[in-house]
Write a structure and sequence with these properties.
The protein is mainly alpha-helical. It is built from three helices and no strands. It is elongated, with a radius of gyration of 17 Å.
Length: 98
């Protein structure tokens, strides 16, 4: 299987690589989720709320900067990360009994 987009000669090769990358992204999201669960446990012990606005903005700013550094649409990835963050906050809030 070609390793770069430029090496792909067929749509089958393109699709194979997109599927490979999607699997890798899901693995990374699953790993990220383990840290969200642990964050809820630690927050409970510290008496912290699920939603910490300064941290939310920091994570969104990181996403925008990471997108910019990779030549990606900052607004799109900010929106994507906002959805990810809001889902994480809702999960933590439920675990924290908020």
């Amino acid at each position: 299987m070609p390793e770069t987009a430029a090496e792909c000669r067929t749509m089958a090769e393109i699709r194979e690589n997109i599927d490979r990358i999607d699997r890798a992204l899901m693995q990374l999201f699953a790993e990220r989720w383990t840290f969200i669960g642990r964050a809820a446990e630690i927050k409970a012990g510290l008496g912290l709320k699920a939603d910490i606005p300064a941290r939310v903005e920091e994570v969104r700013a990181n996403a925008r900067e990471n997108a910019r550094q990779h030549g990606l649409d900052e607004a799109f990835y900010d929106d994507l990360w906002n959805s990810l963050i809001q889902h994480s906050i809702a999960y933590e809030a439920e675990r924290l009994g908020e």
